[in-house]
Amino acid sequence: MSSHASPADDSSTRARKPLSLFRLREMQASGEKIAMLTCYDASFARVLDEAGVDCLLVGDSLGMVLQGQASTVPVTLDEVAYHTRCVARGNRTAWLIADLPFGSYQANREQALASSVALMQAGAQMVKLEGGGWTAETVRFLTERGIPVCAHLGLTPQSVFALGGYRVQGRSDEGAAKLRAQARELADAGAAMLVLELVPAPLAARVSTENPQLLTIGIGAGTACAGQVLVLHDMLGITRGKLPRFVRNFMAEAHDVEAAVRLYVSEVKAGRFPHPEHHSY
Ligand SMILES: Nc1nc(=O)c2c([nH]1)NC[C@@H]1CN(c3ccc(C(=O)N[C@@H](CCC(=O)O)C(=O)O)cc3)CN21
Ligand SMILES: CC(C)C(=O)C(=O)O
Ligand SMILES: [Mg+2]
């Protein structure tokens, strides 16, 4: 093989090896940002994978963007499993994460295990659950049984009715200290990844440096996390109504969906998204 790469051999078009937790940790160690998007079907999975998205999240946001519900609370395990099977068929190399929906893991550790098994058997490689404190025991139970877990702190939408709205979390000193303690507990319990949603950028930065064993993924959490995530329909400009400030419409700067997704990936990798002023708190 020639060492001179032809255009067709360029790294952006060359078939990529499937991502692993090991590879994601290498990326974090080398400072390469992780680009994640939500994904709910096979067609988008193929496009996102080919565009270089590192992680696909079958988010329970599907309840809002696909089903038209007012929150993620009505989403069922069967629905997430169905969309996970769809995404798994279209995906080739991206790391595939599925959300445990509301009510599928809160009862006890055994319920969380059964729900996680259903999502893993649907094709997920990692499950995500919301909240801190009581969840640490569940995270330990799952990780000890071979299930990679992503935790989720800050704005946890399944608790929207308890939180009183989609609001920035961890703004007070007490709130920030609590979130930091919960992140540490989740890391100690074996969580490999942590989504930080709608938290002040300095707090997300602090959690990231305090827990090097966690792959932190920010959404409205500033630039310091190991990676970023957005809801696919938001970054493609499809979502109607008032959008969170952390959203950027990449379709407005691109001629087709794949180009918009490629732009998102390159902006995340270059540290140009999120913009500290426009997309952070
Ligand atoms: N389409 C979509 N995008 C999302 O990012 C998303 C969902 N759906 N569904 C589940 C949750 C809900 N999310 C939300 C919803 C609203 C705000 C919001 O209105 N934020 C305001 C106020 C923040 C504040 O200052 O307290 C903002 O300007 O960002 C944020 C996150 C994030 N998730
Ligand atoms: C926004 C991400 C983190 C999520 O949990 C979802 O899409 O459900
Ligand atoms: Mg979710």
TrEMBL record:
Cofactor: Mg(2+)
Reaction catalysis annotation: (6R)-5,10-methylene-5,6,7,8-tetrahydrofolate + 3-methyl-2-oxobutanoate + H2O = 2-dehydropantoate + (6S)-5,6,7,8-tetrahydrofolate
Any single Gene Ontology cellular-component annotation: cytoplasm
Cellular location(s): Cytoplasm
Pathway terms, separated by semicolons: Cofactor biosynthesis; (R)-pantothenate biosynthesis; (R)-pantoate from 3-methyl-2-oxobutanoate: step 1/2
Biological process, per Gene Ontology: methylation; pantothenate biosynthetic process
Active site (UniProt): E197
Keyword Transferase listed: yes
Cofactor binding, per record: Binds 1 Mg(2+) ion per subunit.
InterPro entries, per database record: Pantoate_hydroxy_MeTrfase, Pyrv/PenolPyrv_kinase-like_dom, Pyrv_kinase-like_dom_sf
Keywords: Cytoplasm, Magnesium, Metal-binding, Methyltransferase, Pantothenate biosynthesis, Transferase
Positions bound to Mg(2+): D60, D99, E130
An example Gene Ontology molecular-function term: 3-methyl-2-oxobutanoate hydroxymethyltransferase activity
Binding site for 3-methyl-2-oxobutanoate: D60, S61, D99, K128
Record-listed E.C. numbers: 2.1.2.11
UniProt cross-references to CDD domains, sorted A to Z: KPHMT-like
Family: Belongs to the PanB family.
Function: Catalyzes the reversible reaction in which hydroxymethyl group from 5,10-methylenetetrahydrofolate is transferred onto alpha-ketoisovalerate to form ketopantoate.
PANTHER family: 3-METHYL-2-OXOBUTANOATE HYDROXYMETHYLTRANSFERASE (PTHR20881:SF0)
Subunit note: Homodecamer; pentamer of dimers.
The protein's name in its UniProt record: 3-methyl-2-oxobutanoate hydroxymethyltransferase
Native source species: Caldimonas caldifontis
